[in-house]
């Protein structure tokens, strides 16, 4: 901690005369103002998103909820009791 404080004091002693000259001289202040102009914040406009919030009529596909087994337009298919029987029925090979 003593090193930090010692360096701080030494730097301040070196910079104090420069700071005093800067505060007294208007030309220094003008040059600093030109070199580092104050930041002007530009307020961005929010873009309005078209179509958000509209709750119109939903299509049949939109009305079906994930996991809903009673959906409209669903076709029930009997596939059999074994995997072989199910493959045959789906392939169109009915006994």
Give a description of the structure.
This protein has 95 residues and is mostly helical. It has a domain at 1-40. Helices cover 48% and strands 0% of the residues. The protein has 4 helices and no strands. It has helices at residues 2-24, 26-35, 60-63, 83-91. The radius of gyration is 39 Å and the shape is elongated. The protein starts with a helix and ends with a helix.
What is this structure's SSE topology?
Layout: H1 2-24, H2 26-35, H3 60-63, H4 83-91
Summary keywords:
95 residues; mainly alpha; 4 helices; elongated
Classify the secondary structure makeup into a structural class: mainly alpha
**Shape annotation:** elongated
- The total of beta strands comes to 0
What does the largest sheet look like?
none
What fraction of residues sit in β-strands? under 5%
The termini sit apart by 92 Å
- Secondary structure tally, helices: 4
| Order of SSEs | HHHH
| Relative helix content | 40-55%
- The overall pLDDT, averaged over residues, is 77
The low-pLDDT segments are none
Q: How big is the Rg?
A: 39 Å
Q: Briefly, what is this?
A:
With 95 residues, the chain is mainly α.
